[in-house]
Design brief:
By secondary structure, the protein is α+β, with helices and mostly antiparallel strands.
Length: 485
């Protein structure tokens, strides 16, 4: 049995009875539901580690970390949480950027780390059933071993978990061709906030039997229940991927190049980054300079070229763009190794700028609005904070942009975040003006919660609350995320 004498003392504002109730719940899990001592952690180091995600805005303060090994064990915990009125925070790989997995108010964190098995493979269906704790890269490697492909990919693939990807409807670098996580989820097993186990869609392509409840749990950030298993669709692997990195001096030319290539070639990626990002990358010495002379903007595009006519077409488009004055310089991979090196220019940006404690905004609009949208945002930030350095990058081929404001050395983190937050309303008013999203792929969590009304009407938010009441009537699932009850 676990010794609960080490349960933490919560800060003022937490009811003292919460710890006593948590201790009772943890004891019942061990005595009646098969939990062993390795499945429960209450030490300070563990609470700190599993109680947070990649955000730095909220201090973690959970009361315990629980590691179920089965859907039944998840169900037992959820039912006890309802009985004892204890809030649960589901936890995956904790790579989120909106504080959706942060437990800051004495919650019990439910980590899916021990539910990490590939359950079953259906070759004829190109379908694999996995537990929610399977790492994204693990699924990608399994697919590769079957000569198949799981295309949802991003920088955190080595640590993010499928359950977390589903909870945030993760996107990444291949969305322009393959779509978001939602497009690859064919079935779910979930434990609702009431403690019911639902088997949703069961992997079928065609199923016209009423509401598709599976879609409610995708992107719900664990506020309706806990995903414990998923049936994920796989695809044929891409063939002979070729990468181009192109430089240009006007942002309008970025969009003209995108249109030119998309008109004739099915792109698998079209990524954008600016000169500030390249400056920071080059300072690390980990990436080679793409061209002899810098340009203001860069794009990385990728496409399949298994046949020579496709490569001929790509070169013809490139030459037309050069003739039109849209492209200043460009480089194209001649091997898979060169393609991987060129991808480093885009994939290393987040890690490189992390030392500057960036204030991140993950926003999206229709591709048609992107040029005017970026102009309006830059006008606001430059006017209010002329001394702040702005780094733009993102999946511009699907309208998703990451605005990163870099912290000056002379400001503390709290001062810097405070100043950035004062300009948020202005930025999100521009998002609203263009009918965009305040969170394209990182979720809402707690960091974006105050701004949800810029992307969702009050009527929509009321419907979201009513849906939550049905599936989680006592509000025990990830309370305080997306919206307040």
């Amino acid at each position: 049995m676990t010794d609960f004498s080490a349960l933490p003392t919560l800060e003022a504002g937490h009811a003292l009875t919460t710890l006593a109730l948590t201790e009772q719940v943890l004891s019942i899990l061990q005595e009646q539901h098969g939990y062993d001592a390795s499945q429960i952690k209450t030490d300070t180091v563990s609470l700190e580690h599993w109680g947070k995600d990649w955000t730095k805005h909220f201090a973690p303060a959970p009361s315990a970390i629980v590691f179920p090994k089965s859907t039944k064990q998840v169900q037992a915990l959820v039912k006890l949480a309802n009985e004892y009125n204890i809030v649960i925070t589901p936890s995956g790989g904790r790579t989120g950027l909106s504080a959706g997995a942060v437990a800051s108010n004495g919650e019990i964190v439910v980590s899916l780390d021990k539910m990490n098995k590939i359950v079953q493979f259906y070759p004829a269906d190109r379908l694999v059933e996995v537990e929610a704790g399977v790492i994204t890269a693990q699924l990608q490697q399994f697919a590769e071993a079957q000569d198949l492909y799981y295309p949802v990919d991003f920088a955190s693939a080595g640590s993010s978990q499928i359950g977390g990807n589903i909870g945030t409807n993760a996107g990444g670098i291949k969305v322009i061709r393959y779509g978001m996580t939602r497009q690859w989820v064919m079935g779910l097993t979930v434990v609702t906030g009431k403690g019911d186990i639902l088997k949703l869609n069961r992997g079928m392509i065609k199923n016209a039997t009423g509401y598709d409840l599976r879609q409610l749990f995708i992107g719900a950030e664990g506020t309706l229940g806990i995903v414990t298993e998923a049936q994920m669709k796989l695809n044929r692997p891409p063939q002979d991927l070729t990468v181009m990195v192109l430089g240009m001096d006007e942002f309008d030319h970025v969009m003209q190049v995108l249109a030119a290539f998309q008109a004739q070639i099915d792109l698998t990626a079209f990524e954008f980054f600016d000169e500030v990002a390249v400056d920071k990358l080059m300072a690390t010495g980990h990436v080679q300079e793409p061209f002899e002379a810098r340009t203001k903007y860069y794009v990385l595009l990728e496409f399949e070229a298994p046949y020579e006519p496709i490569m001929d077409k790509a070169m013809a488009i490139f030459e037309d763009c050069m003739d039109n004055g849209w492209i200043v310089d460009g480089v194209m991979s001649q091997s898979m190794a060169q393609a991987m090196d060129l991808w480093k220019l885009r994939e290393y940006i987040s890690e490189t700028i992390s030392v500057f404690t960036p204030y991140k905004n993950d926003i999206s609009v229709l591709i048609s609005h992107v040029p005017n949208f970026i102009h309006d945002i830059e006008t606001i930030v430059n006017a209010k904070y002329p001394d702040f350095e702005i780094c733009w990058f993102g999946h511009i081929g699907d309208g998703n942009l990451h605005l990163n404001i870099l912290k000056p050395e002379n400001l503390s983190k709290d001062e810097f975040f405070g100043q950035c937050q004062t300009v948020n309303n202005s930025i999100f008013e521009v998002v609203q003006k263009y009918g965009g999203s305040i969170s394209a792929e990182h979720g809402v969590g707690m960091t974006k919660k105050p701004y949800l009304h810029y992307s969702r009407s009050e009527t929509e938010i009321d419907y979201l609350r009513e849906i939550k009441k049905v599936l989680d009537p006592n509000g025990i699932m990830n309370r305080g995320k997306i919206f307040d009850l």
